[in-house]
């Protein structure tokens, strides 16, 4: 319910940015992505580093033009499995984003942007279900046709967590109980994304 409310608020922000008076000047962009996520390690109760498996993910961006860039909504969903620990989970990012664009050649645009929003955590080793998160991204866009573009992006995403908390877990090898703690108050992930943008 909280996530749906957040999506509604961000959707309203997008509609405000693309007001009827500017509708003729603005274009709308839909970009589905596939990508790969790289995650930092967590630590078990013995101080041993436990690696979060790097996994593929899917994402979607909904954007509209504003000034020299674009604003919109970014959604990303990925599995999150810790090596050697029982139980699977996922992390879902829901971000409002803004990006500046620079034409480096007639067919290629470079981009740099920031994003802000929340992370829906469905993993046992994080106590909170909703986390504040932010991101930075850069990339390039190649124009295939008037309304289709190929996009490559690299993103850094950071979620705010309680670095002092410990979460219970079970070892895959023996089924014994264990505890996982985070080393810092930010959980970082890095994404590489390949997408296809359709404009309307």
UniProtKB/TrEMBL annotation:
Organism (species): Photobacterium atrarenae
InterPro entries noted in UniProt: OMP/PagP_B-barrel
Protein name, UniProt field: Porin family protein
Keyword line: Signal
Domain of life per record: Bacteria
Signal peptide as annotated in the record: 1-23
SUPFAM superfamilies with a match to the protein in the record: OMPA-like
